[in-house]
Design a protein that fits this description.
Radius of gyration: 22 Å
Strand content: 5-15%
Order of helices and strands: HEHEHHEEEEHEHEHEEHHEEEEEEHH
Largest sheet: 10 strands, mixed
Helix content: 10-25%
Shape: globular
Oligomer: single chain
Number of helices: 11
Length: 524
């Protein structure tokens, strides 16, 4: 890929190095900042007040305006588990996991246990590590429990989804999926509370009562909001939202926005607790969606095309921002957007660098090394504003890739179809969506197949970020170039080489384990 690093890119890298050296001598950054990553599940691009002022989410707007920088080109995978696998392993999903169902009865999916993941790396630097909420990174292996993957503390659920109010798992024979806490076991006394309040509340309690502020902290807060089904406590519902399909639960825009309002309150409570403990000034926090919102239900990714489950920008370009205290994020950078391309995998090297530990994982035997790029100088330095960053290639999946050419044009190839869960999802939504009269599938939407079926879609994202003009016929050589680059990447998937973790030798079935625990989901 070295041919993609142009003279302009080399000059940028040299400038970034000089800037980093200058900053190191003058900035007040702490040696090891507290690091927090807060994921909001299935959050669409147009589902917060950052882009849509009608959504009641004042905390994220205020935090961004007073302490943050919006990430305009932050890329994830198009569905939940691969995004989380990439984030915590520092690998592209094509090098760790593109399977979204490591949840039910098998040990497939998640992150290969031979891979060092982010909390393990940060513990090398002396961090205390804690995880809250949704895991979805291998639910049926004891060896894949958060406590076995580097987290000192964990409270949440192991699968990919559950009832928001009862914690009953629709993926595990209607058992109750609630695991962790001090005993690292089924939490049989704590279910029955709305998941946003349950997991967000435990994160705040952790800051208030379990954290030593003198020790660097890593907190991974993975809310289940705003994942379907759309339910929320009435206190968060906006009574002014009346124009929505009340007879279709999946399309309940009022409940969906209420879930974001609750998530916004979690952000408020977490940052308030950090300030009260005297930790905020030394904290860097990332707030991000894990993938695009399901616009075929009640999410909205306007102005982008598509959503959860496909590789259009609406499925993979996620709403997100970084925020930090004055000792981490220089106040002069606040409210200046970051235009450079950042992949979920890049947080592994970025957080490792800020923690002062080498991110390299080449000692992980028989698995790919990390694909992560350190973006700390982009996020915390003056270089994060013109779009010319160190990442020129973004492999989104085994079917899609973005490649920046010598002139700084971002070309995007998508080979796969727009079908997700038997539904054509490659459509655009209006700015207000859904409404009683205008929602899918009762209203027709264009189903636009690629013009060149043998290669797929080709877009110029600089000129066409909404992906309305397929250029594969007009620029066949460029389409073929991107296809060749994508196919030049070797692939590796957890379980693909037949590796069986020696710690996972049980012959007990999940159903037997549920009977043994009295109705609680557990690793077998």
């Amino acid at each position: 890929m070295s041919r993609l690093l142009t003279g302009r890119r080399t000059l940028f890298l040299l400038f970034s190095l000089l800037l980093s050296l200058a900053s190191a001598s003058s900035a007040k950054q702490p040696q090891q900042p507290h690091l927090i990553f807060l994921l909001v599940d299935d959050l669409g691009y147009h589902n917060t007040a950052i882009t849509n002022p009608t959504v009641n989410s004042p905390t994220v707007v205020n935090l961004l305006a007073t302490s943050g920088r919006e990430l305009l080109r932050h890329y994830s995978y198009s569905v939940c588990s691969p995004s989380r696998s990439s984030l915590l392993s520092g690998r592209y999903p094509i090098h760790v996991n593109e399977l979204n169902a490591p949840t039910v009865n098998s040990s497939l999916g998640g992150v290969d246990t031979r891979m060092t993941i982010l909390p393990e790396k940060l513990k090398e630097a002396g961090y205390y590590t804690a995880a809250f909420g949704k895991w979805h990174l291998g639910a049926r292996q004891t060896s894949n429990l958060p406590s076995q993957r580097g987290f000192d503390y964990h409270f949440g659920f192991l699968g990919g989804g559950e009832d928001h109010n009862t914690q009953h798992s629709y993926e595990a024979f209607d058992s109750i999926d609630l695991w962790g806490g001090a005993e690292d076991s089924p939490n049989k006394e704590r279910n029955g509370t709305n998941s946003c309040l349950l997991y967000g509340g435990d994160a705040v309690d952790h800051i208030n009562n379990r954290v030593d502020p003198s020790q660097p902290q890593f907190m991974y807060i993975a809310l289940q909001n705003c994942h379907a089904a759309y339910v929320a406590p009435d206190v968060y519902k906006d009574p002014n939202i009346t124009d929505y399909p009340k007879n279709k639960q999946d399309f309940d825009r009022q409940a969906m926005e209420a879930m974001m309002t609750c998530a916004d309150e979690v952000v408020l409570n977490v940052t308030t607790a950090l300030k009260e403990r005297g930790m905020w000034d030394d904290t860097l926090m990332v707030v991000s969606a894990d993938n695009g919102g399901p616009q075929y239900w009640a999410a909205n990714n306007y102005p982008f095309r598509g959503g959860k489950g496909n590789d259009f920008e609406g499925g993979v370009r996620v709403i997100s921002f970084v925020a930090g205290g004055k000792n981490v994020l220089d106040p002069s950078l606040v409210n200046k957007p970051v235009k450079e391309k950042i992949h979920f995998a890049d947080w592994f090297s970025t957080f490792s660098s800020l923690a002062g530990v080498d991110p390299d994982c080449s000692d992980d035997k028989d698995v790919p090394n990390i694909d992560s790029i350190d973006m700390s100088s982009i996020l915390l330095g003056d270089s994060g504003g013109d779009g010319a960053g160190p990442r020129t290639v973004v492999p989104l999946s085994s079917n899609a890739i973005i490649v920046e050419d010598d002139q700084g044009v971002d070309w995007k190839l998508i080979k796969n179809s727009t079908i997700w869960q038997d539904t054509d999802t490659g459509f655009w939504t209006p700015e207000t969506w859904p409404t009683t009269e205008n929602y899918f599938p009762n209203s027709p939407f264009p189903s636009i197949a690629p013009l060149n079926a043998s290669i797929g879609y080709l877009f110029n994202l600089n000129d066409d970020p909404s992906e309305r003009q397929d250029l594969a016929i007009e620029y066949p050589a460029k389409a073929q170039e991107l296809k060749d680059i994508l196919e030049s990447y070797s692939t590796f998937q957890t379980g693909s080489d037949g590796y069986q973790d020696p710690r996972y030798l049980s012959c007990v079935t999940l159903e037997e384990k549920i009977d043994e625990t009295g109705g609680w989901a557990a690793p077998v």
